[in-house]
C-alpha cells in the first residue's frame, strides 16, 4: 500500500526557522492545519512543536485539536455557516467573519455558552473570495463592535487564494490603513492586522511588510518551504517535509500508444494520437499502487528525475522507467515530492497510510 511520510526533524527545523523570524519582528502567528485533514498522528506532531495557535477550516478538526490540547487557541478560517454556529463557538476561540447577521448569531450563541468569541473582520482586497468591501468597513464595524460576548480581535484579508492576487507591499499598506481608519473613527485599538499568509513570507524576509501587519497564518511555508512569488524554496527551509512512497505492482515492456477504438477513459479524457507515430515503439512501464482516488498526478515529482508519469486511473498510476539507471523490480518503492494540493489529496484519502519518520 502506498504511504505518506512526515519527516519530523525537517518539520521541527522549518518551525524553528519560522518561529525565530516571526519573534524577531514581534509578529504573532499560528499554524494552518487544514492540510492535515484532522489526522491525529500529524496534529500531535504539530502540537509537540510548541504551537500555541492553530487555524483550520473544518470544525471537526478544531474539535480534535481542542481534545488533544484545550489550551491551544483555535481559529476558524472561513465565514461560519448558520448550522455550524453552536460548534464554532464551542471549539473555535476566534473565527473569520464577513456577515453582520452571522456575527449576531455568534453573539447570541456565545451568551448561551457563557463565552466571549473573538472575530476577525475579513476585508475584500481584490482576490474576490470572502471579505467586506472596503467602502463598507466602517459601517460594518459600527454595527458589530458593541455586540455582547463578541471581541473584535482584528482585521484581515486573504490573497492568492482564488484569483491569484499577490500580497504586495501596496496591498498590505492598504490593509494597515483600514486599521488606522477604524481606530481613529471609534477610538479603539485593533490588536491584529492579519494580512500574512505563506505567500507573504518573502515580503517579510525582505523587510517590505508594513509594521502594522502583525499576525501571520502559515501552512504552506511550514510544510513545503515554498516562496510563492518565485516557486523556489525559501533559503533555510525544507521542501520535503512530506513524501509519498508507492510500491511497484507490475513492470512490463508495452507499446507507447493504445491499440483499438478510443473513447473516454475513467476520468473523462480521450487519448489523442500524435500524427505519424511509430506504433511499434515501446517503453518499460511500471504500475504503482495509488490512483486518482488518492491523488492528481500533476502534483507529484519523482525523486528519480528520469521517471516520467504517464497517467492515472482510479486506483493505479503508470510511470515510464525506460530511462532510469535503477534496476527497478516488482515490490520496489518509488518516492515522490509533493506540491501542497498533492499532499492535501493524500491526507484526505483513507487509503493512504500516514506515518512519521
Automatic annotation (TrEMBL):
> Does the keyword section mention Isomerase?
yes
GO molecular function terms listed in the Swiss-Prot or TrEMBL record: alanine racemase activity; pyridoxal phosphate binding
SUPFAM superfamilies reported in the protein's UniProt record: PLP-binding barrel
Swiss-Prot/TrEMBL cofactor(s): pyridoxal 5'-phosphate
* Listed GO CC annotations: cytosol
Q: Which keywords does UniProt give here?
A: Isomerase, Pyridoxal phosphate
Record-annotated Alanine racemase N-terminal domain positions? 50-225
PANTHER family (UniProt xref): ALANINE RACEMASE (PTHR30511), LYSINE RACEMASE (PTHR30511:SF3)
| Protein name (Swiss-Prot/TrEMBL) | Alanine/ornithine racemase family PLP-dependent enzyme
From which organism does this entry originate? Flavobacterium profundi
